[in-house]
Design goal:
The chain has a single domain, classed as Ribosome hibernation promotion factor-like (Double Stranded RNA Binding Domain), CATH 3.30.160.100. It has two helices and four strands, in the order E-H-E-E-E-H. Strand 2 and strand 3 form a beta hairpin. Helix 1 runs parallel beside helix 2. The termini are far apart.
């Protein structure tokens, strides 16, 4: 997993980075291949925003979370990204098995 973290108006501490890495490891367990994750953390007035762009299998997914607490935003971002990845994997699996079923259909000799 290649993880790049950038921040706007925030200093990334070791605690924030370790929390972010532990949450993103949850996403990496779904794949055998390395995936690229770009994280942007930002603060505007009273809200914290966490954005993630995930690139794998030639596809890009985008997730974002806005919360009052930065750690809560990171947790919510990890949950959203995990759900999107599982949904995409299910779609890919469904399409691949549908094509296999079409190959094995034997026409009825009527």
């Amino acid at each position: 997993m290649k993880l790049s973290i950038s921040a706007h108006h925030i200093n990334i501490t070791k605690g924030i980075e370790s929390h972010l890495r532990s949450k993103m490891d949850r996403i990496a367990r779904h794949f055998e291949h390395p995936i690229d994750i770009s994280i942007i953390l930002s603060v505007s007035k009273h809200e914290h925003k966490a954005e993630a762009k995930l690139h794998f299998y030639g596809r890009d997914l985008f997730c974002e979370s806005i919360e009052l607490d930065l750690y809560k935003a990171i947790d919510d971002l990890a949950i959203k990204a995990d759900r999107k990845i599982l949904k995409l994997k299910e779609q890919v699996k469904r399409h691949s098995t549908a094509s296999i079923r079409k190959l094995h259909v034997i026409p009825d000799p009527a």
